[in-house]
Design a protein that fits this description.
Layout lengths: L9 E2 L2 E10 L2 E8 L4 E7 L2 H4 L4 H13 L9 E7 L2 E7 L6 H10 L7 H20 L9 H4 L17
Antiparallel strand pairs: 1-2, 2-3, 3-4, 4-6, 5-6
């Protein structure tokens, strides 16, 4: 199922308009929330997960826990659900690319790597968000620059929607 492109389909009140990325933990779409007429990010989880015993209960518990996190550097979850055997999480759509995108763009433009000050600021924001989540019993799995701005939201220019990789 995960290899299927769901672009053009509806999940609840969300129209999946564009596939943004595919990774081990699902596919991320640019979605449109028809009721509020706004763009959102919709992460569709692999169908293989839904077949595991106790999955729906675990998915619901984890979605509710993540949705309760309110921190300036954590992308908010606005909804979740399972429809036609497809589980999904809806988040605020953030544009601007990943940290890896930002580093690559800077190097292409000849600016090199982020300055020590920029790096320190990002690490403070990242550490603050991870600390906040950990203090609420949420374990994060951020391991590379392509993911580091997916759940953890840095300054708006660096932010993205969700981890497509």
């Amino acid at each position: 199922m995960m290899s299927d492109n769901l672009t053009g389909q509806m999940l609840g009140q969300y129209e999946l308009r564009e596939l943004l990325g595919i990774g081990g933990m699902g596919s991320v779409y640019r979605g449109f929330q028809t009721a509020l007429k706004r763009e959102v990010a919709v992460k569709v989880l692999p169908a293989t997960l839904a077949q595991q015993p106790g999955y729906i209960e675990r998915f619901t518990r984890e979605a509710e826990t993540a949705a309760a996190l309110e921190h300036p550097h954590i992308v908010p979850i606005v909804d979740y659900g399972t429809q036609r055997g497809i589980s999904y999480v809806v988040m605020r759509l953030l544009t601007g690319g990943t940290l890896a995108d930002r580093i690559n763009h800077s190097q292409v433009e000849g600016r090199g790597l982020p300055s020590l000050g920029e790096t320190a600021k990002l690490l403070r924001e990242l550490a603050s968000a991870v600390d906040y989540a950990h203090n609420r019993g949420v374990i994060t799995a951020i391991s590379r620059p392509a993911m580091s701005c997916s759940i953890i939201r840095a300054t708006p220019i660096w932010s993205i929607l969700a981890s497509p990789n």
